[in-house]
Amino acid sequence: MIRDEIVLEIGQLVLRAANETSADWAYAGYVYQTADGKNSSRQDFLFEAGLERSFLNDKSIKRDIRTIFPRLWQVVTDSDENHPVAIKVGVRAADRDLKVLFEFDDGNRWAVGPGNIAQATQIYLGDLFPEALP
User: Fold this and answer.
1) What percent of the chain has pLDDT over 70?
2) Sequence-separated (6 or more) residues with CB below 8 Å from residue 64
3) Closest CA to 55 of 97, 32, 27, 93
4) Do 93 and 27 contact (CB within 8 A), yes or no?
5) CA proximity to 57, closest of 45, 48, 69, 68
6) Does the N terminus or the C terminus of the chain have fewer Cβ atoms within 10 A?
7) Residue 32 in contact with residue 119, Cβ under 8 Å?
8) Calpha distance 44→53 (Å, rounded)
């Protein structure tokens, strides 16, 4: 299925960027937000083994990431035009487990900014890999 192929490709891109960023990473991923599949924002995340938060060095994959998330958004939008407003992808280093979540109601559900930076670990990892949380 095309959706699964796109998800695997995103996972491979995240793995590549995470490995280029740190030898000691534990979790990495992206949050993609869009209302129309064209205008979007992306937040990347990387957590080291002690859950110290960092960012992906994604320069080598940035162009691919910019084009692949809209493709995923398009294939998960159904014939009734129900579409996700956010997509979160995460990879766990220990076993290369890849998880994808779709949000259809609240586009800011997984957004991290100045007002909630202290909750970044919970926001990024909580529903993907709850076992990672202290």
Assistant:
1) 100
2) 13
3) 27
4) yes
5) 45
6) C
7) no
8) 11
Which secondary-structure segment (H or E) carries 43? Answer: strand 40-48
Helix, strand, or coil (residue 105)? coil
Per-residue confidence band for 77, with pLDDT thresholds at 50, 70 and 90: confident
List Cβ neighbours of 15 (8 Å cut-off, separation of 6 or more): 28, 91, 96
Residue 79 confidence (pLDDT) above 80: no
As separate numbers, helices (DSSP H) first and strands (DSSP E) second, the chain gives: 3, 5
Determine the average pLDDT of the residues in 25-43. 90
End-to-end CA distance of the chain: 36
pLDDT of residue 60: 86
